[in-house]
Structure formats: structure tokens, C-alpha cells
Amino acid sequence: MSEQHLFVTWCHPEGLIHPVGRLTRRVREGSQAFQFVYFKNAERLTEEGFPLLPGLPELHRVYEAEELFPVFRKRQMPPQRPDYGKYLEKLGLDPKTDPFEVMARNEGRKLTDRIEVFATPVRTDGGELTTLFFARGIRHRPGASEAVAQLNFGDHLALVDDADNQVNALAIHIDTAHGQPIGWVPNYLVNTVHDLRELSGDDAVTISVEHVNPPEVAPYMRLICRMSSPWPDGYQPFSDPEFQPIAS
Predict the structure, then answer these.
(1) CA 194 to chain centre
(2) At 140, is the secondary structure helix, strand, or coil?
(3) pTM of the prediction?
(4) For residue 17, what are the β-bridge partners?
């Protein structure tokens, strides 16, 4: 049996992105099953306006189903749509990519709510930690759109601490190799970057270009980055208290 986890997040109206739950897919001998559980963090956030997910109204319950829960299924573009192939191109994916993998790449975004998902980092055969993400905030950086258009697969990008950031003092922005700011590391990855730097050194975490979309594509889908780092012994990303399930 294989398992794949997606962390579910909620964007607070003030801007910070908070983990609220975990979606798991289990695959065994051609069949699949799904589980969803809220994090303890979600209980606190209900006092700050977090609405529980549609169809998943009980904080202290472990949800099990043979089909993907509707609140997540509606975040998948139907493969029958005529523009489905073009959409996968924007995500840098093969046309035969599994729909659950597509959701892991597109981060489950919808314009109608504040919910997103992200995948756990992968350990490579060489013992490295690696994960993909969309650069955030490109439209807020003067000159960023033009700079992104000049990037190519494999180009090195720089991580620069953004301690003056008014939303998150731990924020990290992304620069080109020539020092042009082009966006930010997603909030959900910021603590992981800081952890890896502390455990393995400031230069251990590297960022490179994975896929670039043309300027006519929405800014939030312009640039897919790859983060890589040595995987420290005993380290488990996303294991701090805010990621702990309420029910087990």
C-alpha cells in the first residue's frame, strides 16, 4: 500500500496561510481510499473566522471515504475539458498525470475560497529533500514579470530574508541570480527553509527554476520553483504542533 499526503491550508484575511488539516490518499492493488482529519490549529482558527470545510463539519472526527471528498474534488479540472491539456502544460505536467497529482501541483486553488493544498517534500534516492512550489507575489514586485520571462529551466535563484515583511517577519523573498526580486517563498514553506538552514547551514537550501509560463498566464502560475536540501538525520518536515491532528 502507498500513501500520499496533502496538507490543507486556510489563508487568513490578514494574509498568513495556516495549516488546518491533512488529506491522505491510500492506494492498494488498484483501489484507493481517502482520509481527512483536522489539525488542532483549526480549532483555534475557528475563533478567527475559519469556516470548517463544506461537507466536513466535525472537528474531532476522522473522515474516511472511497471517493475523494467533494470539497477537494471540485478543485480538480475534469480531464474531459477541451483545455485540459493546455492546463497541464501550464503546470509542467504530462497529459497522463493522475488527477490527485495534478491537485498537488496546482495547490488546489479556487477564486471562490481561501483554501489551498500542498504536498509533502519528497526524499530522493540520493537522500535529498525536494519539493516544488509556485513563487508567490510576482505581481507585487516591480520588474518581476519581465525578469521571470527571461528565466529558463534549471536557472539558480537566490533566497533573501525579508525581516521587514509586515505579514510575516520570517518571510523569504526570491531573487534572480542577478539580484532582481521576483516573488516570495510560500508561507507554508518558510519555517521549513529556516529549519533546514539551522540544521545544515545557510547554503544548504537551494532554489532553481522548474517551469516558466508566459506573461499572459495568471501571475500566481507564472513560475514553478524547485527547492532542494540535504535531508538531516531525524528531521521530519511539518511536524510542529500546528500540524498535529485533533483526532487519530
Answers:
(1) 16
(2) helix
(3) 0.91
(4) 11
pLDDT tens figures, 160-217: 999 999 889 999 999 999 999 999 999 999 999 999 999 999 899 999 999 999 999 9
User: Domains in the chain and their CATH numbers?
Assistant: 2-121 (no CATH), 128-230 (3.30.70.2330)
- Single out the residue of 245, 229, 241, 226 nearest to residue 194, CA to CA: 229
Q: How far is CA 73 from the centre of its chain?
A: 17
CB under 8 Å to 89, separation ≥6 — which residues?
Answer: none
Q: Residues 191, 196, 201, 202: is their CA dihedral positive or negative? A: negative
Q: Which three cell numbers stand for residue 206?
A: 537551494
Q: Quickly list H helices, 33-177.
A: 40-45, 70-73, 84-90, 99-106, 144-149
- How far apart CA 155 and CA 207 sit, in angstroms, is 9
